[in-house]
Amino acid sequence: IWIGTFQGITVLNVNKEVVKKFTHDPKDPFSITGNKVYDIIQHSDGTIWVSTDSGINRYDESANQFTRFVHNDENENSLSANVVRRLLEDKEGRIWIATENGGLDILDQKTYAFHHFIENKTSRTSISDISLYSIYRDQLDNMWVGTNAQGVSFYDRHAKPFVVYQSSPGVKGALQYEKINGLDEQPGKGIWLSTE
Length: 196
Fold this sequence. Notes:
Distance between the termini: 29 Å
Helix content: under 10%
Strand order of the largest sheet: 4-5-6-7
Structural class: mainly beta
Strand content: over 45%
Oligomer: single chain
Mean pLDDT: 91
Low-confidence stretches: none
Largest sheet: 4 strands, antiparallel
Radius of gyration: 17 Å
Order of helices and strands: EEEEEEEEEEEEEEEEE
């Protein structure tokens, strides 16, 4: 069991005994990028991915070390921002990355290039915010992205552009709050949102 904290990662075995601890070491380029851990996922290929306030990390179990992915101003295919709130794998094995102040990224593990979705205030089909707090893949493999202050952005995998749902005071059935901390699905009933 991998447990992310604001002081690194603790790994427990089935008997709930601590077997490993990982923390950032500025002298070790193979340590985790930061101690503030926001999310941990296990990819379908078995690898562990960790998001932090300083980039994302792929754990190599055989070497017991991390490969780091961070923002680089000189590389447009790098991670768009280092604070990463959530990670999610899609059915093609790509990793969707919800960043704070960098929008939404998709990592292609074959090329290790990041594709970016950022807010475009002149477009009605762009993601609605660059600060993202949550992401969810529904039963149809569409993506729902919860933002810090601009509601929910829905990505239809067939239509491709985003549809934005924001609060509309006085409108029945509209969102009441713009900050979306979490998303989940109740089959046949719709998407549930946790707000602040």
